[in-house]
Amino acid sequence: MANGFLGNILRVNLTNETIEVEHPPEAWYRTYLGGTAVIAYYLLNEVPADCDPLGPENKLIFATGPLTGTPIAGGGRNGVGAKSPLTGGFGDSQGGGFWMAELKRAGFDHIIIEGQADRPVYLWVRDGKAELRDAEALWGRDTAVVQKMIQEELDDPAIRVTQCGIAGENQVRFACVVNDLTHFAGRTGMGAVMGAKRLKAIAVRGTQQVPVADRDEVLKLVRRLSEDVRAGTRNAALHDTGTAGGVMGLKATGGLPTRNFQEGDFEQAEAISGPTMRDTILIDRETCFACPIFCKRVVKSEAYDVDPVYGGPEYETIGSLGSNCGIDDLPAIAKGNEMCNRWGMDTISAGMTISWAMECVERGILSPSDFDGIPLKFGEPEGMLKLLEKMAHRDGVGDLLAEGSARAARHFGPQAESVTLTIKGQEIPMHEPRLKYGLGLGYAVSPTGADHCHNMHDTAFENDVASVSAFGVIKPLPADDLSAEKVRLFYYQSCWQHWLNSAVMCQFVGWTKHELLDAMRAVTGWDTSLFEMLKTGERAATLGRLFNLRVGFDDRDDELNERFFRAFKKGPLAAKWMDHKVFNRARVTYYHMMGWDDLGRPTPSRLSELDLSWAREAPLG
Amino acid sequence: MANGFLGNILRVNLTNETIEVEHPPEAWYRTYLGGTAVIAYYLLNEVPADCDPLGPENKLIFATGPLTGTPIAGGGRNGVGAKSPLTGGFGDSQGGGFWMAELKRAGFDHIIIEGQADRPVYLWVRDGKAELRDAEALWGRDTAVVQKMIQEELDDPAIRVTQCGIAGENQVRFACVVNDLTHFAGRTGMGAVMGAKRLKAIAVRGTQQVPVADRDEVLKLVRRLSEDVRAGTRNAALHDTGTAGGVMGLKATGGLPTRNFQEGDFEQAEAISGPTMRDTILIDRETCFACPIFCKRVVKSEAYDVDPVYGGPEYETIGSLGSNCGIDDLPAIAKGNEMCNRWGMDTISAGMTISWAMECVERGILSPSDFDGIPLKFGEPEGMLKLLEKMAHRDGVGDLLAEGSARAARHFGPQAESVTLTIKGQEIPMHEPRLKYGLGLGYAVSPTGADHCHNMHDTAFENDVASVSAFGVIKPLPADDLSAEKVRLFYYQSCWQHWLNSAVMCQFVGWTKHELLDAMRAVTGWDTSLFEMLKTGERAATLGRLFNLRVGFDDRDDELNERFFRAFKKGPLAAKWMDHKVFNRARVTYYHMMGWDDLGRPTPSRLSELDLSWAREAPLG
To answer: Which of A352, A528, B290, B607 has the most crowded Cβ, counting Cβ within 10 A?
Structure first.
């Protein structure tokens, strides 16, 4: 087995209570790498297209990457996948933290969870061994309690825990998978799949070292990053103000989602900005395995009694529970964040479901009586916090809202549906397509529905050709461009993003592309290249696409909401919008660049080029 | 301007006797690099599709690469292109030597020759200056005489000369361009274009250094190669026995072209092998600019009075004038080589035209009387040598044969045509498609017609996955395979080959792909990658394709001769042949992988991906 991998995949069947270990050959590891591509491989091969995402036929995959557990910062994200209960298609999400590195150090690359337990269980993995244990006592408890109970039961405070929260138990369709309490595989409802399987948690402890091919080179890269971070020349802002550091910049450009994306320059942005957080409620900074950056926030507030054990809000949460609900009360946002983390809900989908409800009320489409009498108004935290609690527990109207905004709106009818902002059933994250046209295209074609992690953020490239010049793209392209040249950049950059997700590599560490290539070569010993890396990313995207085609998605599902084709009335982006025809043309150009036909179906020759000939004849589920 | 380039392109109009210098921006250099891609760029933009290749509208391009003139061995080949008088399509060929490095040191990246002189001239380039000079005295003289006369006239024995030989003056359709007397841009008849323009030679002298971005890194690479060569761990065989070193291996596998490709295991192979040459007629080894390998042969023989000033035969010549004519007389082959070099003819097309004639006589299709009474028989050198002389001088039947075997056969009718072995009018080189199926596909789709330099040699990869693993191709694929997997390898490898040809990089130096990437980064300072390099190669191939489509070629011209779909009667490859249907399917798979439609026409989206949107609307000539 190549360095960087253990060669062991744990397969756990909850129905039969069997545990097996599989050992694919090195070529398989090199082809599918980890994370997204591994998840897609298993879903396509093993999960029937028509199965109930919340039934026993679905499989839940936890996939590491080649760098996980090595000293290379950022390569140990928690890649979790399954058929999504939110979209009905390809489900895949990632969080940071320590759990994945611990899993690798315990001797396993991936875990496949099959079947469904008839009572709550948790999986205990320790140094090459695994067992299922009773979890009745853990059921219905807050994530911090669960983690503590497991560590006490197994008598080891160093145990790392991944779990579904109460929202997952309740099969909230946007429930997330929580690891290390403050890290979340947030999107596509993976927590609901875990809860439906009655798998409360996976506890892991490992003590072995992950082998690397060239330790000196690995340490050289690690040292360079550490020195840059220490010197403040790399990622200083991220350390200082976290992912929320960009709030004021987004407001200035008009791309800060405000009041359900009706506007883009939230007037009270400063109150919820990274610097404000730093100067008010921040009490500590945390980080992920081997990462010197410490971008994670820990906040505490007497207002709303915010518990620091659940960390602090990322930018996505600041946007979704804050500006996009019109809310400028940072402790209230921090409280919403704490509640989502305590119970295990994706803050994006949760917040977007709330902002949708607020707009419905604002427009008179719905009234508070439709929401158990809770007053819902942009800017007022009370309704937001109440709805979060109801959703997590499926209490009252929360039972409907726990289905996500697309299903809830369908319940209320066409007018309510007209103000939902979802793609393939998943709520749009906190990045404005009217600011970044390439991102809008990315939302539309992402295999997971609207998703900022399977995408590109093209404003960055407008200012920084250096970051994509390794692909041979050497001309700056404006953010408000969807020409074929821009689609080319999007094609390359989205393949790169899918590679990052397959390597479970954080996009925030600030490694250059060549440093990541060097890291791959140093860890695995493979003679790999940026070419192979991009092709691996393309393979991952194509596998996700195939899964979606099999469940019945087609090109009509690659659509961006009508709202994004209409101009803002005011603000920096006023009178700017994407032309729908240009967008449609760009989408087909992307299909073609991906080797897909006019309807977005991968062609046999591209499947062969991606070493996926088997997928041409793979069972349709 | 980026390091590695001068930023100066010399444009010489022979009709008007004007000389201009152009300065494209750095982005242009990065997009088209040099060699093949630069040539294709100019042909597509400036040469009318329907122009006479031997008329004034054709343009003759001499294109260096980014590494030319730096200490990186192999990066200074003489890339010469024009609309080909042999194929009527994309003409492009390369030779080694010193002239290109001298051109770069004289301050120019490329030379574009336009128009037609009304009397013989030569171009004199020295340190940023250029002038046209009278060449009446040089006309009709042997290449060695011409080089000496120019050096004496300009009073500098260090002057480097590129020239067309007597064959070029006579517009022999497979005349080559000769530089430094023993290096040849052999294929597609570039010497005839030069001769038709009455440009006898280009003499160059330069004294400036080519700038490099990271001198230490460049020297590190250079030292590593030198040490490996000195230690005999890299390219030892190539130094010892030259490109003819593989003769016995090819005979053993049945892939040594014998008697016009009727057989593949020439019984007297040992007599014409690299070791035999080394032990008999070899008197010295020569090399190219900055290259420590010294793979070039210098031979001398009293038999046939072989003049060592013209070097010695490469493998292609050993095959084309030797085994493929059934000839085992090494001094006779060396004499044929000397004659071709003295007068400037491509030994492959010349030899293949002769072997075609020999087979016509053997089969009774034609008789010696059709060839001025010269006895033509496989195995007998006399006819071969006589025909070479007649072709170069267009004497008697040589006037017809100087048109190449395809046109000559057409003159004699269908039976004679049935035994020609040409693709797009160019004769097949000395590699057997029935041994290497991917090579057969490459012959068919190469933009220059049958060509081993725009191709892959897939037996190498069967034994050496390491050489392609940087592309992510990690499974050994047999040589006799044309599955979609093999086409994928061919697609990647042929793009790589086109990159080599655009970087004017020798494929024999033995640099690994990552070393060449390191060299590119160290010389240019660009943040480039193997991804960009492969895309640049694909761009070159696509531009060549577009030029061919414009002159009227279509998918029916991508055909391999029927002979290669029939099994050998005996020898190691007996009962082995490519299935024509499998071949046709592989060809379409290649089209699709290249982003071409079923008929081999590049799609708009692939053109955009290759940053060639302009070519969608470019003039059709």
So the answer is: A352
Q: Which of B472, B514, B527 sits opposite A470 (nearest CB)?
A: B527
Domain covering A9-205 assigned CATH 3.60.9.10 in the classification: yes
CB contact under 8 A, B531 and A536: no
pLDDT exceeds cutoff 90 at A21: yes
Instruction: Average the pLDDT over A306-312 and give the result.
Output: 98
Q: What DSSP character marks residue B211?
A: P
Q: Which of B464, B474, B597 to mutate to test the interface with A (most CBs of A within 10 A)?
A: B474
Q: With a CB-CB cutoff of 8 Å, which residues 486-505 of chain A face chain B?
A: 487-488, 491
The ipTM of this complex is 0.95
Name the strand (E) or helix (H) holding B607: helix B604-609
Query: Measured between CB atoms, does A531 come within 8 Å of chain B?
Result: yes
Q: How confident is the model at residue A618 (pLDDT cuts 50, 70, 90)?
A: low
Residue B160 to residue B151: CA distance in whole angstroms:
8
Q: A606, B603 in Cβ contact below 8 A?
A: no
Q: How many residues does chain B have?
A: 621
Q: Does A603 touch chain B (CB under 8 A)?
A: yes
User: Quick one: which of A119, A117, A126, A75 has its CA closest to A100?
Assistant: A75
Cβ within 8 Å, pair A471-B27: no
Backbone phi and psi for residue B175, each to the nearest 5 degrees, phi listed first? -65, 145
- Among B470, B488, B532, the residue with its CB nearest the CB of A472 is B532
User: Could you tell me if A477 and A468 are in contact, meaning their C-beta atoms sit under 8 angstroms apart?
Assistant: no
The top-level CATH class assigned to A437-508+529-615 is: mainly alpha
* Chain pair A-B, CB pairs under 8 angstroms: 119
Kindly write down the DSSP assignment for every residue of B266-307, as one continuous string. Answer: -TTGGGGSHHHHHHTTEEEEE--TT-S---EEEE-BTGGGB-
Tell me the average pLDDT across B193-205.
98
Fold of B237-420: 1.10.569
- Does B603 touch chain A if contact means CB atoms closer than 8 Å? yes
**Cβ atoms B260, B564 nearer than 8 A:** no
Contact of B245 with B251, CB cutoff 8 Å = no
- Which tens digits make up the pLDDT trace of A141-199? 999 999 999 999 999 999 999 999 999 999 999 999 999 999 999 999 999 999 999 99
CA distance B100 to B348: 23
- Using a CB–CB cutoff of 8 Å, tell me whether B287 touches chain A: no
Looking from the CA of B605 toward its CB, the CA atoms found within 13 Å total 24
Q: B330-343 and B143-153 helices cross at what angle (nearest 10)?
A: 40
Residues 6+ apart with CB under 8 A from B507: B453, B497, B500
Domain boundaries, chain A: 9-205, 237-420, 437-508+529-615
Interface membership of B582 toward A (CB under 8 Å): no
